[in-house]
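I'll show one example:
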Amino acid sequence: MSQENIINREEAQLKIKELAEGINYCFFCTDLSQPPFESTPMSVQEVDDLGNIWFLASKQSDKYKNISRDKKVQLYFSDPSSMEYLALYGSAEIVDDQQRIDKYWNKFVEGWFEKGREDPNIILFKIVPEKAHYWDTKYHKLVSYAVTLINAIGGDLGDQGREGDILV
């Protein structure tokens, strides 16, 4: 596995966008000072051009209460099928923006909010990344598996993976 840190801000934002939107679901952790952390699987609504990650949530959730007290969050993205992973640390902002809620509204989201898109408990979390670490493949998944197999039986095609810090 080669180390490929990303320190250029634009490259960092693009890498976060690529991985977070590609994987889409993550474990969203709050209350980081009190292990075990409060963790919930959540779906990414958007990664904007600045690398901020947006989620729809409820004002009635533990996550909302925790973020109201402490804005530090940790997100864990994992897609073993594509061999892509992202661990992201940042700060959460609570945003009340009906236009953005309307933009993200769909049938799947509707299932979480019985009162519909006008539910006064719907809120947005905007995650501003501070630091991240990623793991992914240099090649297509099937090529990576083939290289791993050849390496395992004594061949040496070098590493097929990469990992690195993303400094935003």
Q: What stands out?
A: Residues 9-23 form the longest helix (15 residues).
